[in-house]
């Protein structure tokens, strides 16, 4: 199955965190990264005052289902020091599953609503985080 993951970092060595995340994703036996976008610097959207982000998008092939892939991405975030203390706060790494086989997904911890072009994540404490996709459809289509 094909999937697209958006990556972002605005703490520490931002580029190094993006690179480490791509390496960790690609090291998983059920995943093969097929394309990597250029890296872009973007302003933070919402939340407290914080530094700019470096963002990229990867396209991958996987044997995993969407919820299994999300779990792997969350574990990589934890491994790279991601802390979820402040909603929309700064982070070492942010890995968002933004597309999965053209599916609209409505699970307890992952909602990909292609018609509204947004994703919603629910963490274990039922705090809902909605993040608008910053990349245009054209950009996402180029990474497929």
Give structural notes.
A hairpin with a 5-residue loop joins strand 8 and strand 9 (128-132). This protein has a single domain (2-102), classed as 7,8-Dihydro-6-hydroxymethylpterin-pyrophosphokinase HPPK (Alpha-Beta Plaits, 2-Layer Sandwich), CATH 3.30.70. The protein is an alpha+beta fold. It has 3 helices and 9 strands, in the order βαβββαβββββα. The chain has helices spanning 14-27, 66-79, 137-143, and strands at 2-9, 31-36, 40-42, 53-62, 94-100, 105-106, 110-113, 118-122, 128-132. Strands 1, 2, 3, 4 and 5 form a 5-stranded antiparallel beta sheet that branches. The protein has a 4-stranded antiparallel beta sheet with strand order 6-7-8-9, covered by helices on one side.
Largest sheet: 5 strands, antiparallel
Which class in CATH terms?
Alpha Beta
Radius of gyration, CA atoms, in whole angstroms: 14 Å
Termini distance? 11 Å
CATH architecture label? 2-Layer Sandwich
Secondary-structure element sequence? Answer: EHEEEHEEEEEH
Summarize the SSE layout with pairings.
Layout: E1 2-9, H1 14-27, E2 31-36, E3 40-42, E4 53-62, H2 66-79, E5 94-100, E6 105-106, E7 110-113, E8 118-122, E9 128-132, H3 137-143
Antiparallel strand pairs: 1-4, 1-5, 2-4, 3-4, 6-7, 7-8, 8-9
Short description:
The protein is α+β, with helices and mostly antiparallel strands and 144 residues long. Helices cover 24% and strands 35% of the residues. The chain has one domain (2-102): Alpha-Beta Plaits (2-Layer Sandwich), CATH 3.30.70.
Keywords:
single chain, 144 residues, alpha+beta, Alpha-Beta Plaits, 5-stranded antiparallel beta sheet, 4-stranded antiparallel beta sheet, 9 strands
